[in-house]
Each structure stands twice: as structure tokens, then as C-alpha cells.
Hints:
The protein has one domain: Alpha-Beta Plaits (2-Layer Sandwich). The longest helix is centred in the first third of the chain and has 17 residues, at 16-32. The protein starts with a strand and ends in a 5-residue tail after the last helix. The chain is an alpha+beta fold. A hairpin with a 4-residue loop joins strand 2 and strand 3. Helix 1 runs antiparallel to helix 2 (50-66). It contains three helices and four strands.
Amino acid sequence: MNASVAIQVLPKVETDELVCKIVDEVIAYIKSTGLSYYVGPFETTIEGEFEELMDIVKECQYIAIKSGCPSVMSYVKICFKPEGGVLTIDQKVTKHHK
């Protein structure tokens, strides 16, 4: 694993219910990739290889549009170490959970 990505997808729609529906579809797509991921209250973190993660980030935009929003904004954080060895989700958060 040489990268991790945190993505927050913000569909530009009129109701909170529709926001949640679209975000749920994006998260379902992320789950379907088979990669390790962590859903937080503001963003979802995914671990894997850099190129694959960039394809997933791109596809998240298309999933949101296909799910009914006319436009989407996303905030993305990327940690990339070409030689591998980025900190894992577990290394970052496990110690903070009861």
C-alpha cells in the first residue's frame, strides 16, 4: 500500500435527505471496491495503491451525478509514499476508540 485518500463528497442538492441518499450511494461504491476504508462523519478514508485510489476519487464524482445531483463538490486529502509504508487507518484511529 502506497497511498491513502480521504474524500468528502458534497452533492449540490436541496435537501439533507437527498444529500444522505447520494452520499450513501458513493459509500456503497467505495465498499464495492474491496479496499480497506473507514467512514467518518465528514469523510471516508480509503487505503490502497495511488493510481487505483485516484480512479476511485474520479468515479465518486460520476456516482454522485448519476445518483441525481446536478453538480458535486469534493474535498480530497492524499497521502502518497511511492515506496510504500503510509500509516494505516488502524494505526491512526484504533487507539482512540473504546
